[in-house]
Amino acid sequence: MSLAFLLTTLVVVATPGTGVVYTLAAGLSRGRRASVVAAFGCALGTVPHMVAAITGAAALLHAGATAFQVLKYAGVAYLLWMAWATLRDRDAIAVEGPSAPVPAGRVIVRAVLINVLNPKLTIFFFAFLPQFVTPGEPHALTRMLALSGVFMLVTFVVFAAYGVLAASVRRHVISRPRVLTWLRRSFAGSFVLLGAKLATTEG
């Protein structure tokens, strides 16, 4: 495992994106457990992209403009839906005392969808993983699987750290309705901006 791979992975994962926004929202609204579950879901959502890259499907997707556009706009639509749902549902960013926890399954499904409907991840893995595998290497598939596993682990650890950090400041905003309103609008706006950025991504 090269240092270059680890550093590149850390930079890519730590850069704020849709998964980070969702994990932060989970931490602020439901606490540490929800943020860790969301982080797990986001890491799980990278699996299809890794499989696509490893099996060569990513190459076909990258070459097919129509397939890329369909996946891209599905992702844009989902991000806009997340923004609308965040604004509409006051419980989406509601920091309260004891409350009924959101089912872990629902948190994971939303987190997985956020990453599955992000074609940039497929292109990223297609361009990223091969750089760390020697051409003609007899165990290339095994190595790519190992690298993918490390990427998933780093994703989970970094996202969970983001979420736990957000959860740690929950108490400071419990009695501040204006802060909650600002947070809800900020997260909704973040989803809109991320959707707009994705919409302008060239295939």
Summarize the structure.
With 203 residues, the chain is mainly alpha-helical. It contains ten helices and no strands.
Question: What does this protein structure show overall?
Answer:
- This protein has one domain.
- Helices cover 75% and strands 0% of the residues.
- It contains ten helices and no strands.
- Helix 2 runs antiparallel to helix 3, helix 3 packs parallel to helix 7 and helix 4 packs across helix 8.
- The longest helix has 28 residues.
- The chain starts with a helix and ends with a helix.
Largest sheet: none
Mean pLDDT comes to 78
Low-pLDDT parts are: none
**Structural class designation:** mainly alpha
Number of helices: 10
Gyration radius from CA atoms, angstroms: 18 Å
Amino-to-carboxy terminus distance: 30 Å
List keywords for this structure.
75% helix; 203 residues; mainly alpha
Task: Give the SSE layout.
Blueprint: H1 3-14, H2 18-30, H3 32-44, H4 47-55, H5 57-63, H6 65-88, H7 104-116, H8 119-128, H9 140-167, H10 177-199
Helix pairs in contact: 1-9, 2-3, 2-7, 2-9, 2-10, 3-7, 3-9, 4-8, 5-8, 6-10
